[in-house]
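Pasting as-is:
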Amino acid sequence: MKIYGLIGKSIQQSFSPAYFNDKFESLSLDDHYYHLFQFDSLDMLEGHDWSMVQGMNVTMPYKESIIPFLDGLSDDAATIGAVNTIQINEAGKWIGHNTDVFGFQLSLMGFLGDQRIENALVLGSGGASKAVCFVLDQLDILHKVVSRKGPISYTDLDETFLRDSQLIINTTPLGMGEYLNMMPDLPLNHIGKQHYLFDLIYNPEKTLFLEKGEQQGAQIQNGFDMLVFQAEKAWEIWNQKEIIPT
C-alpha cells in the first residue's frame, strides 16, 4: 500500500481525499490511498507510523509550524516560510515544498486575463498569505497585507485603500467551516465594478466575501482552480514527472 495524505486540523470536509482517490482509481493505482492525518498538535507526528507514506499535503494551521519537523526545504518554501506539500525522498527525508505558489499564480492569471493590476490588498498574514505575496512580487503587483496583528489593520481600511487596490485577496478562514457566515471587515460601500475579489476558500463555492463583492459589481473568483492546480503540482513532485494543467 502506498499512502498519501493531508496533515491539518478540523479537515473532515477536505477536498483532497476525494480528488486524489478518484485520481488513483482513474490511473488504476489500486495500491494507492489518500488519508486524512487530523492532528490537534504537530507533536502527534512523532508517534505515528509513516512507513507506508509516500507524500503529504499540509493545510492550516500548520503550513508554517510544520517546518521544524522537516529535513529540508525547496528554494521557494524556504523563501516564503510556509509549506503545503511534503516529499518523502528515497532516504526517508521529509522535504517541504510550496505548491500554493504554482496554483495561485495559474488561477490568478486566468482570473485577471488581460487586466493589468498595479495594487492589491492581501487579507490575512498566515502561511497562505505568504505564498500569495510571493506570487504578487513575481508579477510586480504592489501589495499590502491587512491583519488583526497589523501593521495595517481592518480599521485602517477606508475609501483611499479600496480605491487604490483593484485586487483584494482573502487568505483567512473567514467564510468556511465554523466561520461560514463571516467575512473580513471591509467597507463594502467602496467596492465596485473596478474590483477583482479572489477568495482562497473553495467550499462554499461563493463565500460571504465573494457574495457581497459580487452584489457591489466586483468580479469574483474562488479557490477551486487554485486547489486543483496545486494538487497536480504536488502529484508531480511526489512522482517527479511533468504535468500540464488543463
